[in-house]
Amino acid sequence: MDIAAAASVFTDPRAYADDARFHAAAALLRRESPVHLVEHEKFHPFYAITKHEDVMSISRASDIWLNAPRPALGPKSKDADRENIPIRSLVQMDDPDHTVYRHVSADWFKPAGVRRLRDRIAALAKRYVDHMADLGGECDFFVDVTSHYPLYVILSLLGLPEEDFPRMLKLTQELFGADDEELARDGDKHAQMAALIDFFNYFQALIAERRKKPTDDLGSVIANAMIRDVQIGELEAAGYYTLIATAGHDTTSAALAGGLHAMLENPEQWQRLAADPSLVPTAVDEAIRWVSPVKQFMRTTTEDTVVRGVPIAAGESVLLSYPSANRDEDVFDNPNTFDVGRSPNRHVAFGFGAHYCLGTHLARLEGQALYAELRSRVRSIELAGTPEYMEALFVGGPKRVPIRYEMA
């Protein structure tokens, strides 16, 4: 593989569905061109940032490196669409707005807030392992278990009715799976905007309801939030809901299913976890590092700067490659080995700096509850087929993890 072929992985959704191809390419770039200019006819140019240190450094300098106007990589056509959408979530915001809007929900996702959910999350983890038992020893771990479990946690937090959960799951898959013909709406890779519009229409109705009759859920907090002494706008509230309702479950689902896939390909790691409950927290963090469900965010510099000797002019953009940073040989011992006991684990799958993921503590608690339930109740487990992964440029992970098992 040459450098040009390696750089093509960042513009090819199929690369993220092919773990070996992507990580071979990323390793080559880390060695030979860690800050690499990527030029492709369908994309505006950008520099791919592949080293852990550089991802952290750029993320830390949020006064220079901005999310706007290009928060995530997409083709030129989607960049143009984004400019015409009058809706912003935390992903599109920079300071001073970012800090103000982030504060609206921050207390719900701090450790103290998340601890209040411990019993509910443990009960849901048991519910889905019970579901595995009911399925008779064979299931699709992603489709039947992890695609639903974190979804129920986050949508319950927002206060959505359970009968709407399947619709939210489908819309999330259509939004994040827009580059995958199997997941895109009607197989149309250009239908992502339709899914986004459906989200906003749904949440605008929720905003009106929660403003009329507030309850004690996060949905009411967002709908009635005051931003600089003015009630949050409907478009900003709908953007807030959509971010939490999608990223708040899909990334965790992907990490947990991909982590189990890795353990079943390395059965000694599953045996270590099964034998030692103290490894549950490190196993969850390793699953998150391994899958890195958020593949990239973009940053645009406001001034001429230099990254690892490469000059980058004001107005130019970089892609922060989290999967590459999380396999950086300078940071992780044996980075291509899944290690349920890895410690320390300095992964950047939750981002870093001002835009560090709000749901970090919730994702870890969900993962620990499910893996703890699994390791205590599953007597034996193996793959029952070949797992398949999403074709995606932004957020992705498994779409099938078939397993065969015996319950204790």
Automatic annotation (TrEMBL):
Gene3D superfamilies: Cytochrome P450 (1.10.630.10)
Entry keyword tRNA processing: no
UniProt GO molecular function: cholest-4-en-3-one 26-monooxygenase activity; heme binding; iron ion binding; steroid hydroxylase activity
GO biological process: cholesterol catabolic process
Keywords per UniProt: Heme, Iron, Metal-binding, Monooxygenase, Oxidoreductase
Keyword Metal-binding on entry: yes
A Pfam entry, by short name: p450
Record family assignment: Belongs to the cytochrome P450 family.
PANTHER family hit by this protein: BIOTIN BIOSYNTHESIS CYTOCHROME P450, P450, PUTATIVE (EUROFUNG)-RELATED
Name this protein carries in UniProt: Cytochrome P450
